[in-house]
């Protein structure tokens, strides 16, 4: 979750680390490159490693992303051993591939 306040009033008496989600802030409550990169390295990669170990699978994973300006370049998004990587979809293809862009939103 991304909000504007560093420490929102609604979480005043709550241990922020105990929440079932991660909270971070930015001046306009939007995703940006630094937030995404931090999430990728500190949350996504450890969760992928834990999931693969649980399944007793080989440690390889690929995260497919659209080309949102908030996403850092793929050169900054990979594990040290290179087994977790990011691949970007081609420009102007997300509306053809993503279910939410295929009419689900308009039906709701």
From TrEMBL:
GO MF annotation, one: DNA binding
Domain DDE-1: 2-107
Signal peptide as annotated in the record: none
Pfam families: DDE_1 (PF03184)
GO cellular component terms, A-Z: nucleus
Top-level taxonomic group: Eukaryota
Protein name per Swiss-Prot or TrEMBL: Jrk-like
Source organism of the structure: Chelydra serpentina (Snapping turtle)
Source lineage: Eukaryota, Metazoa, Chordata, Craniata, Vertebrata
């Amino acid at each position: 979750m991304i909000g504007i306040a560093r420490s929102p009033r609604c979480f005043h008496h709550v241990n922020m680390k105990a929440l079932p989600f991660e909270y971070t802030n930015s001046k306009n409550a939007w995703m940006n490159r630094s937030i995404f990169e931090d999430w990728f390295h500190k949350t996504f990669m450890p969760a992928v490693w834990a999931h693969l170990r649980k399944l007793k699978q080989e440690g390889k994973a690929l995260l497919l992303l659209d080309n949102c300006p908030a996403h850092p370049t793929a050169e900054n998004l990979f594990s040290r051993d290179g087994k977790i990587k990011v691949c970007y979809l081609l420009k102007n293809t997300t509306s053809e591939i993503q279910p939410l862009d295929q009419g689900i939103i308009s039906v709701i």
